[in-house]
Amino acid sequence: MNGSSVLLGHERAREFLFGALAEKRVAQAYLFTGPAQIGKRLMALTFARGILCPGGSKVPCEECPSCRKASRGVHPDLLLVEPQTDPGRDAKSLKIEQVRDLQRALSLKAHEGTRKVAILDDAEFLTEQAGNALLKVIEEPPPWAVLSRGRVGWALDMDMALREKFLSLAFLLLTPGPAPGNAGLQSLLQNFGKERRTFEEFLRLFLLLSRDLMVLQSGAREEQVVNRDKIPEMKQINLQTPPAALGRIATMVSETLGQLRANASPQLALEALAARISLARAGVKESHHV
């Protein structure tokens, strides 16, 4: 199967990446941004197969031993780093030990061909210490290494020292997209964030906001709302938010607080939360598969 045939949509990103393959101008590090579950991982894996494919074509041939190994996840030069579940806890994180292991693996020459490719999946779980270690990997990469970092959520307030090391590609929803009025919710999120000193305090306030949204949507009296100064904005949000989504959003905020307690990066956690809220308001159910 031709590599491009499984990547419907995302034409600009696909053409850019496969064009780089054809012209042999593959960058050292890529950053894939966008909502969850829209194909970033699939694109990264297909691009990786193309880099490792000895055929030198614009897309991976999907027939050579290299492509078949990569498709089965057994190619020695394709390194996939995924979040680990902490012992005795539900929280996941990409740990500094994983980044150090990756650094050691990349320091060795390729087993086959001339390149190695590393993919960091679900990088919103990257801890601050792991992010600092990753920065060192990117600043001093071996010439045969290509790093692709998939992320859930939008690159809103990512650490600039790390972000500037990546060539960023944005992926958009293939469906009609988030519900109308999403800009109002994003504005409300940003305003709350600017008014508070810590991200955790902001999330606790947003839990109260979620509660107020449910109170208003239930038809209760406005006197029961805590954040009364936000009532006009909340009413507008409620007009365009499915009732079932509000409970899911509150759960998402609670989960994000748990990620912070597990030492996740605040910036990446906020990006992931914003993307998940957008999908929930659009009626898109979450899945654990990309």
From TrEMBL:
Pfam families named in the record: DNA_pol3_delta2, DNApol3-delta_C
One cellular-component annotation, GO: DNA polymerase III complex
InterPro entries: DNA_pol_III_delta_C (IPR015199), DNA_Rep/Repair_Clamp_Loader (IPR050238), P-loop_NTPase (IPR027417)
Catalytic activity, EC: 2.7.7.7
Annotated GO biological process: DNA-templated DNA replication
EC class of the enzyme, as a word: transferase
Domain of life according to the entry: Bacteria
Positions of transmembrane segments: none
Gene Ontology molecular-function annotations: DNA binding; DNA-directed DNA polymerase activity
Entry keyword set: DNA replication, DNA-directed DNA polymerase, Nucleotidyltransferase, Transferase
Catalytic reaction equation(s): DNA(n) + a 2'-deoxyribonucleoside 5'-triphosphate = DNA(n+1) + diphosphate
All residue ranges annotated as the DNA polymerase III delta subunit C-terminal domain in the record: 184-274
Name recorded for this polypeptide: DNA polymerase III subunit delta'
Source species of the chain: Tectimicrobiota bacterium
Organism lineage: Bacteria, Pseudomonadati, Nitrospinota/Tectimicrobiota group, Candidatus Tectimicrobiota
